[in-house]
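Data availability excerpt. The first of two example chains:
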Amino acid sequence: MTRYCVVPDRRELMATWGTGEGDLAVCIAALPTGADTAALLGLARALTQLSDAAWRTYTHPASAAESLEPNSEGWRREEERKHFSEVIDAISHPNLPRGGTMTVSYSSLLESAHRVGRALHNLDDPQLVKAVAAEAAAELAAVESAELGDLSGRAQQAVLLSREDASPVQVAAADHLLQQDPFGPDELFIGIDPTAAAVAAAHWLAAAADVAAEASGLNPAQVVLEADNIEALPHETPTLVIGLISDGVTPHDAVTSLIGHAMHVADGLLPDPVALREQLDDLEETLAEYTGEDEPDLTDVALRLTPLDPRRPARDLLEDLLTGIHGCWLLHSEYDDLGHDEEADTDDVEGWDDEQAEQHQNGSRERFAQLVRDTAAHHHDRLI
């Protein structure tokens, strides 16, 4: 989201937002001379809350909810998104206290807009009202742009957000980048929504697992775990995703379910109490076997509610999936090296200089990458 701040010595209202490469800032307006600092900070705070509410409609879209029936979560999200058209009017004509009472909107987005309007009303500067209204319009336009899969301009801040759904446009863009570099180019983190990038990466991880499995003779769901014996890897999440896709779950559903679960945890919710009960039962059983106690003490035992970082689940998942592709190459190279070393009659691999070792590694990576491209293309229908 965009954060707003006051520059006291220059009497300016500033907006700042993050991108995949760093933060940007822009001056919104000059602030009225002599205005109370607390009042100015109140305006900045209200604008930040407005941005937060607007971007929440992006990260929690109605399309990700189970139902759009009246009074359902999906219905509430849909209604909140419809309030975009009312924001500017709420800023220009806010609800004000009258006779000791004041109307408060049930909509977080609209109420934030009314707070901005009330802060502007107290500052009583028509030019500032125009500037802030234009700024709010630009912020809403950025959200709308991100919804369409266009992350240019201010909408680029979406690359730092986790979303419960994935734009087909963004998934296609991520898939194109992975075709160029199946190991995951930096552009995935700079210009692509991380949930959409993770959907594409899950598809390519499944392809990489198939390639490594064919070379090693292992089940695809075992390859990243086996690669962990070669190099320490965050194998839990990639293994889970490979298993889901092997069972017929689409990359989209596998990724969005994991990210959505972590986002619910971040919101203080327990999405699946039944699954948690099963986790506790499994944990208790494991501890009983380890300690020999029929009823082991769970007081000091921590249990993760999600395999992802709830503060940044989409980017965390994307990083893990790309690391999983690297792990598939590690395992594949173990078997690939055997065949190519025999063909080249190279027995003294340890005697290679740095240049020879690098050439060999690059050749191994490119052979693996091409096999993964072929496999990903063969199964491309699961990404649609």
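And the second chain:
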Amino acid sequence: MSTLPKIAWIGLGIMGSPMSENLIKAGYHVTGHTLEPEKLDRLTAAGGTAAGSVAEAVRDADVIITMVPASPQVEAVAYGPDGVLENARPGALLIDMSSITPRTSVDLAAAAKEKGVRVLDAPVSGGEAGAVEAVLSIMVGGEQADFDEARPVFGTLGRTVLRCGPHGAGQTVKAANQLIVAVNIQACAEAVVFLERSGVDLTAALDVLNGGLAGSTVLTRKKDNFLNRDFRPGFRVDLHHKDMGIVTDAARAVGAALPVGAVVAQLVASLRAQGDGGLDHSALLRAVERLSGARV
């Protein structure tokens, strides 16, 4: 019998499916639930167990991981008679790896404490590729003892794993991450249009830029998207739009000015309004091209 904790995984999307599969490969017993039947088939094919409801998935779990799109979905799976808190056993550890508002995480931790359930907020960065390769950056908020207990699970999913403070701290750091990523993608997109209009070898230009101070993980990960105009979603514009709302609201609450972030938030919103919300966030290139007079 395995001595590893039994894991319930709620949410098997672009990120959740490969992450749960990495846990299965590491020897964990994973029971999953999601609203998409084909994703449950994928889980069982990988060696996991499909559950027909949140309640069924979490009932015998030692660790419960949620990875859903936004705060409303976290609240939907956490609360209510069929939710995590009503059906998890006392002492279970709930790790929410979704990207949500810091306030939602703080409120969830307080509600869970009344049920005897411990909580960590642990959003991730690295996109689909990082999830598949198990090299995610994981930023965690919550109690030190719970973080220490969860370290082996986190170590299976990511490479850079740090506790950033109390409940909500992980989500605050993730909001900052999404601000940096959005501004970086926007700058890369503007550079691509500038370089192309100037007639230089774009592949060579991006390679040499990425080897210097302008280099970044964003450029490394998204270079081929720009070159090939391949905007299949690794991280959808819709979700980055949500995240820019989170960081804008959180910054306002603490009195931090985000002048560049506010502009990029509007550019992301504009891209979404033009029907590109389902594309990868590297599609910010399309917005720059439109502003530069191209038909895309």
